[in-house]
């Protein structure tokens, strides 16, 4: 069976950190790997974030017999348009939708152009669905394989239940060769090309604003390190971003990785997510990792206010944030900080926040308004203050202001967010650091990304 897997293009309304990073579609690469276990399937990936195509012409040329599309919340509109384009070319082609939006809110895909929704994904249900589709011959909708007995697969024509329990996806090893034609484009801030690697599911930090631990579980579930080592050996990119929720939480795992890197003389640039709590707990292991290639840690400092840190269920204090920042500088590891703009800040809070960033002195800062995604407790808490509807999917991105501020007008709040982004991206993010670490071209690329982000906020401010 000829199967086409698609990552949609970024929606125009979305304000995302994609202005600064552009990563491989790891989920699609994993699905590709599973489907290719059956030699009878021919599988291709179309990454529309990396390649602009006329989808109708592309479908007519490639003639897929099944199409799978991955979706974030912001992608729903694009996914529906793609599915309808598939059906216009050939109404008998089954369309399957997966990704985090399918996991969290499959009801978003209750559309005649979509046949199946992957509420969760395993090797078994992928084989069962696509093998069944191959057997059916896909001549008419009636001949589509029955998904009633395939756990995790929802047949849209039979209706999508209003309430479904979240289930975990199986860890699947990706086939990175599936995106060989795009790999030079994938980057993480200044590291280009850069591969992604996941070594565990879940997170025990359970931050209140985070969806990911709710999808993966409230404790870390590490994978077999030999499986991870095999992937590192195969990755050809000079840089690897480890996308675990908190890769620095397990000193034993860190020590195993360090032994492996030293033994096999592997020299790569490693980037990872890490919590302040883990940085303070596992100093010896992290310092060792720094000597073997750890270049940067994305640290969720999130706030300068003790009460907000407590409300976010952060395991660190404002003072511990400063200690962690000092340790990373001591080890020669760059701190890429993330912060949340709270909707209840006043003008004084924004000023105090900018002073706090100067104290921390991160090399790069990522700033996002608090986003109460559906499924989070904050969604109910702020429901009466939401600025757009649940179905306005394109606007549910981390960069959009989604909650009406309580202590200033919306335009004034937009102005503070814009001014803070300008100050941080053009004056606090160290230009000398960017040039020294990545060169002038990367400085230009990230500056251009910052300008695009500022323009989007400026447009919102002028509405």
UniProtKB/TrEMBL annotation:
Q: Which GO terms describe its molecular function?
A: 4 iron, 4 sulfur cluster binding; catalytic activity; cobalamin binding; metal ion binding
Matching entries from Gene3D superfamilies are given as: Aldolase class I, Cobalamin-binding domain
Q: Which UniProt keywords apply?
A: Iron, Iron-sulfur, Metal-binding, Methyltransferase, S-adenosyl-L-methionine, Transferase
Tell me the ranges covered by the Radical SAM core domain, including all copies.
189-411
Question: Where does this protein have coiled-coil stretches?
Answer: none
Domain B12-binding stretches: 11-140
Which PROSITE patterns does the record match to this protein? B12_BINDING, RADICAL_SAM
InterPro entries named in the record: Aldolase_TIM (IPR013785), BchE-like (IPR051198), Cobalamin-bd (IPR006158), Cobalamin-bd_sf (IPR036724), Elp3/MiaA/NifB-like_rSAM (IPR006638), Methyltransferase_Class_B (IPR034466), rSAM (IPR007197), rSAM_sf (IPR058240)
An example of a Gene Ontology cellular component annotation for this protein is: cytosol
- Which cofactors go with this protein? [4Fe-4S] cluster
What is the name of the protein in this document? Cobalamin-dependent protein
What does UniProt list as this organism's lineage? Bacteria, Pseudomonadati, Thermodesulfobacteriota, Desulfobulbia, Desulfobulbales
């Amino acid at each position: 069976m000829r199967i086409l897997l698609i990552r949609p293009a970024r929606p125009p309304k979305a304000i995302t950190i994609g202005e600064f990073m552009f990563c491989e579609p790891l989920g699609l690469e994993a699905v590709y790997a599973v489907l290719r276990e059956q030699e009878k399937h021919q599988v291709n990936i179309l990454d529309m974030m990396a390649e602009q195509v006329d989808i109708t012409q592309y479908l007519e040329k490639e003639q897929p017999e099944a199409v799978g599309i991955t979706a974030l919340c912001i992608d729903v509109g694009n996914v529906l348009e793609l599915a309808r384009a598939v059906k216009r070319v050939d109404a008998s082609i089954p369309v399957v939708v997966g990704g985090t939006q399918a996991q969290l809110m499959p009801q978003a895909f209750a559309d005649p152009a979509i046949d199946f929704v992957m509420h969760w994904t395993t090797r078994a249900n992928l084989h069962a669905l696509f093998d069944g589709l191959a057997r059916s011959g896909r001549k008419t909708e009636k001949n589509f394989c029955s998904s009633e007995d395939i756990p995790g697969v929802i047949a849209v024509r039979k209706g999508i239940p209003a309430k479904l329990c979240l289930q975990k996806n199986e860890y699947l090893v990706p086939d990175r060769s599936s995106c060989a034609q795009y790999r030079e484009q994938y980057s993480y801030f200044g590291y280009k090309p850069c591969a992604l690697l996941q070594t565990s599911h879940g997170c025990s930090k359970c931050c209140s604003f985070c969806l990911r631990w709710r999808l993966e579980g409230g404790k870390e579930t590490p994978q077999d390190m030999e499986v991870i080592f095999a992937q590192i050996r195969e990755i050809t990119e000079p840089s690897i971003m480890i996308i675990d929720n908190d890769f620095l939480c397990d000193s034993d795992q860190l020590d195993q990785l360090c032994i492996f890197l030293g033994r096999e003389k592997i020299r790569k640039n490693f980037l990872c997510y890490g919590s302040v709590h883990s940085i303070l707990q596992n100093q010896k292991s992290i310092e060792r990792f720094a000597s073997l290639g750890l270049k940067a840690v994305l640290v969720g400092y999130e706030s300068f206010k003790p009460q907000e840190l407590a409300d976010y269920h952060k395991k660190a204090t404002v003072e511990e944030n400063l200690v962690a920042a000092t340790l990373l500088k001591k080890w020669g590891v760059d701190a890429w900080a993330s912060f949340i703009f709270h909707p209840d800040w006043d003008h004084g809070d924004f000023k105090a926040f900018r002073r706090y960033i100067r104290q921390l002195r991160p090399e790069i800062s990522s700033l996002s308004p608090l986003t109460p995604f559906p499924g989070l407790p904050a969604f109910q808490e702020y429901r009466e203050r939401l600025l757009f509807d649940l179905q306005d999917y394109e606007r549910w991105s981390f960069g959009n202001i989604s909650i009406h501020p309580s202590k200033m007008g919306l335009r004034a709040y937009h102005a503070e967010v814009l001014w803070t982004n300008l100050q941080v991206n053009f004056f606090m993010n160290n230009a000398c650091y960017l040039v020294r670490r990545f060169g002038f071209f990367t400085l230009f690329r990230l500056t251009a990304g910052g300008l695009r982000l500022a323009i989007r906020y400026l447009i919102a401010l002028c509405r």
